Amino acid sequence: MHETVEALSADAPVGSRSGSLRGATTRARWFRRGTGVVLVTLAVGLPLLRQSGVHSWRTIWAEDGALYYAEADRLGGLSVLFRGYAGYLQLPPRILALGMSRVPTEQLSIYLALAPALVAGLLAWFVYRATDGWVGSRLTRLVLAALVVLMPCLIVENVASVTNLIWTFAAVVPWALISMAEKKVDVATRSAVAFLAATSTAIVGLFLPLAIGFALYRRTKAAYVVVGAYLAGLSVQGLVVTHTTDQARAPVRNSVGDFVTLIGQRIFGQYLLGERGVSSLWVEHGTALVVGSTSIVAMGFLVSLMGAERRNQVMAMVLAACAFATFAFPVWGRGTSTIPLEAGVYHLDAMRYSVVPIMLLASAFALLVAPVGPSANHRIARVARPIFIAQLILVMAVGFSDDNFRSVGPAWPEAMRTAYENDCKGMPSDTEVGVMISPNNWALVLSCAELQPR
Question: What are the residue boundaries of the structural domains of the chain, listed by start?
Answer without folding.
Answer: 59-398, 412-451
